Amino acid sequence: SEKEIQTCDCEKRCGALDIVFIIDSSESIGFTNFSLEKNFVINVVSRLGSIAKDPKSETGARVGVVQYSHEGTFEAIQLNDERIDSLSSFKEAVKRLEWIAGGTWTPSALQFAYNKLIKESRREKARVFAVVVTDGRHDPRDSDTNLQALCTGDVIVNAIGIGDMFNKQEEDETLHSIACDNKQRVQKMKLFSELVAEEFIDNMEDVLCPDPQIVCPDLPCQTELAVAQCTQRPVDVVFFLDGSERIGKQNFQIAHSFVENVAEKLTLAKRDNENMNARIALLQYGSENEQVVAFPLTYNMTEITDALAQIKYLDSSSNLGSAIIYASNNIVLNSRDRQRAARRNAELSFVFITDGITGNKNLDEAIDSMKKQNVMPTVVALGSDVDMDVLLKIGLGDRAAIFQEKNYASLYQPSFFDRFIRWIC
Fold first, then answer.
1. Residue 199 — very low, low, confident or very high, per pLDDT cuts 50/70/90?
2. Judging by beta carbons within 10 Å of its beta carbon (0-12, 13-18, 19+), is residue 131 exposed, middle or buried?
């Protein structure tokens, strides 16, 4: 079947697409919903086959993003950005967008998207789509005449309205205006979390790529993850391993085997300052003053394997806040000279393997330090008894960053493992 073919080493092609996502980054959205918007963009684009390797190429998808708040704050990932030549470089650019948290100038943002992204750089033979996500609130000082700025006849505009504002007739009309008065192109939902629901992503895939071509090589199929992972960009991954007595020795061993499996799957860097590929570190933590660096950020597989063979389970209590602060001071920074040990140009990823049951001391301070360091969190939450409030905190409010699995044995499941690797890469 088509779905099976796509999991082989085949390539999905949607023809020449120029797609611009226009996402609301105003205060009324909130940080969590802004994160959901970004994940929606990434999840949709990851379904669209190959990103154009060269922005001047006549084939492949090019994707731009405008995030908007009040006048003068619009930020864009341009359609013709030469640095974006793969899904991973696009994903990186989207993840770096920071919530603006100001007012809402939606009509001006639509005008900006048309003038600065579409008009200036669209490809002659490409189909052009715009996807607008809004909660319907916009500043009355911003002229409604620009609501149809994208309606030039050759841009297919999809408007997604989220929240209770669209129960009011005038806001409903606003949404239809954005979509160039085409009811088929308007989607309303109650919650931002619906954006990342599998069914809705499927729907968007059909909208943006209705007639995909599946092109397979002559070679036999390989699984998707047979290709090297985390190769296009530098990623420094710090694993936090819960060494509390709740976990139990057997689960602890499964967890550190998982870290080893991840290290084997990733393409590790060849040296500390290499401009691509992965390095990993592991911190086991227990009570407030119990943190053990099993190994610092390294690309050396032998060092990783040796350290994991010698790791001793703390069998202690749990204080995650102190562990995060300790890692910031002793792994992200070099504990000897206080210089940064994480690569400056690398995505810094913290992976927490925990149920979230932890002492709350220092947790807020730890979250602040993660935000300051632009950490990309991933939470692997195991078991049925988890503290979702804590998990959301350390996931910086991003539900999509929380992988909830029923037990530690799930870490061995290929379906989970593949999703996890794709997420951190």
1. confident
2. buried
The CA distance from 241 to 254, in Å, is 11
Closest to 332 in 3D by CA, of 346, 321, 312, 319: 346
Is 384 in contact with 406 (CB distance < 8 Å)? yes
Element of type H or E holding 58:
none
pTM of the shown model: 0.57
Band of the pLDDT at 216, cuts 50, 70, 90? low
355, 385 Cβ separation under 8 angstroms: yes
Say what the alpha-carbon torsion angle 83, 89, 95, 100 is, to the nearest 10 degrees.
20
**Tally of CB atoms within 10 A around 101:** 16
Pick from 349, 348, 331: which is nearest to 340 by CA? 331
- Least confident window among 107-121, 185-199, 239-253: 185-199
Rounded to an integer, what distance in angstroms lies between the CA atom of residue 380 and that of residue 204? 28
Q: Which two tokens stand for residue 108?
A: 């001006």
Rounded CA separation 218/130 (Å): 36
What distance, in Å, lies between the first and last C-alpha atoms of the chain?
27
List, for residues 65-108, the tens digit of each pLDDT value: 999 998 788 999 999 998 888 887 898 899 889 999 999 899 99
**Surface-to-core class of residue 66, CB atoms within 10 Å of its CB (0-12 exposed, 13-18 middle, 19+ buried):** buried
4: helix, coil or strand?
A: helix
Using a 10 angstrom Cβ sphere, with 0-12 exposed, 13-18 middle and 19 or more buried, the burial of residue 198 is exposed
Q: Which two tokens stand for residue 153?
A: 């006849």
User: Contact at 8 Å (CB) between 130 and 112?
Assistant: no
Q: Has residue 166 got a pLDDT over 90?
A: no
Which candidate, 124, 129, 118, places its Cα nearest to that of 78?
A: 118
Cβ–Cβ under 8 Å, residues 248 and 169: no
Give me the residue label for tokens 């993840």.
Answer: 95
Apex CA 11: angle with CA 9 and CA 17, to 5°?
A: 160
Both structure tokens of 146: 């620009």
DSSP assignment of 357-422: ----TTHHHHHHHHHHTT-EEEEEEESS---HHHHHHHTTT-GGGEEEESSGGGGG-HHHHHHHHH
